[in-house]
Amino acid sequence: MYRPRMNNHRTLKEYLLDHLADHPEQRELVMIMSNMATIGETISTQTNKAGLAGILGSLGQTNIQGETIQRLDVFANELCKKYLRATEHFAAMASEEESTVVDMGNDGARAKYVIAFDPLDGSSNIDVNVSIGTIFSVHKRLFNIDRLDERQFLQKGRDQVLAGYILYGSSTVLVFSFGDGVHEFTLDHGIGEYFLSNERVMIPPVAEYYSVNEGNTVYFERKDADFIAYLRDEKKLSARYIGSLVADFHRNMIKGGVYLYPAVDKGGKGIYTGKIRLNYELKPMAFLLEQAGGLATDGEMNILDMEPTSLHERRAAILGSRDIVEEYMAR
């Protein structure tokens, strides 16, 4: 049945064709981006009917991160592997849900890239209908080492060639960058097409909001707890915290704000450690943020300048509008 286009915005397909015309050397990346859009559409459809499909709830198991595995985590992870393996452009894959590098079965000349992703960030919130998302990060394959070597993924965030996320909320939004600005597309489920909704996304330079789990303040270092109190009591920023990284990040990038997850000491031993995963979350978010005019740090250095030391490394995270992040780093 014919369904008329609901707006005059450019479609994702049109945008990618235009991008390819300007950057013919990025043909594979354009195809990868198209594939990620398909993955997002499929996951979006399934999450919308998860309760009816019987894929809500946990499996009673934990993943490599020590977190409870949700049925939707498994579904999204397997879906991503299936679609990404079929592209033949990836030599290897790393998933938040997998303990080791995943063999994609591709070792030919076409397998020029490796991809790290969080298949379903915030999945524990799906039962209560809170926004969740998929995050992805693409690097060039290092041909001087084995394709399944963990070092394929221990590259600096600044060396990413494509990064993005798909937010499943009141609408499904795809945000990505090839390194030439950040672009946002919104999915029209009626015709199965993404339309350009925000070209050249730029985060407001002055923050109006801060996002942090203030229930963790007792576990933060004193300097971090004091900084959060400063944002609330002196800067008079408004608090907005959803508890889903993709949702909090997206809101702050559009509205102007900062996401904070300082290092915590929950063991009471004076050992403070970060929680956000460097490869699956921080690197791609920092890449997008810098392209949009913001900044990302762990409190010590720029996230994009970090060289991961392990596949599942975690760091503290301060992500957002330039004014607050610079103020945090200057303390």
Automatic annotation (TrEMBL):
The keyword Magnesium applies. It is found in: Cytoplasm. InterPro entries: FBPase_C_dom, FBPase_class-1, FBPase_N, FBPtase. Pathway: Carbohydrate biosynthesis. Residues 203-328 form the Fructose-1-6-bisphosphatase class 1 C-terminal domain. GO terms for cellular component: cytosol. The keyword Magnesium applies. Mg(2+) 1 binds at residues 96, 118, 120. One of its GO terms (biological process) is gluconeogenesis. This is Fructose-1,6-bisphosphatase class 1. It comes from Candidatus Magasanikbacteria bacterium CG10_big_fil_rev_8_21_14_0_10_47_10.
